[in-house]
Amino acid sequence: MSLIQNKVVIITGASSGLGEATARRLAASGAKLMLAARREDRLKELVAAIAKSGGTATYRVTDVVDRAQVEALAKETLSTYGRIDVLINNAGLMPLSPLDQVKVEEWDQMIDVNIKGVLYGIAAVLPIMRQQKSGHVINLSSVAGHKVFSGSAVYCATKYAVRAISEGLRLESNGEIRSTNISPGAIATELTSTISDQDTAARMNEFYAIAIDPDAIARAIAYAIEQPGDVDVNEMIIRPTRQEL
Predict the structure, then answer these.
(1) pLDDT at 1 over 80
(2) Helices 17-28 & 40-52, crossing angle to 10 degrees?
(3) Would residue 155 show up in a list of annotated catalytic residues for this protein?
(4) CA proximity to 90, closest of 6, 160, 184
């Protein structure tokens, strides 16, 4: 039996891309899922598909920039399933642009979703996991959290922050909380659709021609979860074989 079987997992940004692929894979392995995103229609479709395949999933519409909504997500998960074993902080935005375009509203969005959203998730589940004396937080960073790219300064800063938060949680785990940071390269998702700068969008669309399927990341997440409790997979970088940077 897989060690994923019966684990209660919250996934943010679950309505598409990495979140959706991860939900499908973990459900097939017997996890009990709470799916969170802003698009209720997509969440309903995904929950129905998982149920049709014999899996267990429910959802709550959640905007991760709203701390009260994230707290409510954790409380409903606990009420529904009785515990929280894993939080997957997947929700993220990537509206890239050069700094001299001064797209401050987009900077604020990235900081709110990519950093504060991660922290709100941790804040919501950590007391529960401490009480359980077990838990696992998986944060989605990026190769942009390891290297700064032109036109990506603020996005890279948010993903460096996610790595720092992941490592800080590991150091403070007291042997109870597992912390995994996963850094994807070019993955075929909707992430590039948030780029409003036309030149940057064109460049990134060309770069993403080599993008690999989101299930590559879902498999990595499943691998981290299914390790025995005394094994903590702390860091993974997953790129297309053809990606150089």
Answers:
(1) no
(2) 20
(3) yes
(4) 184
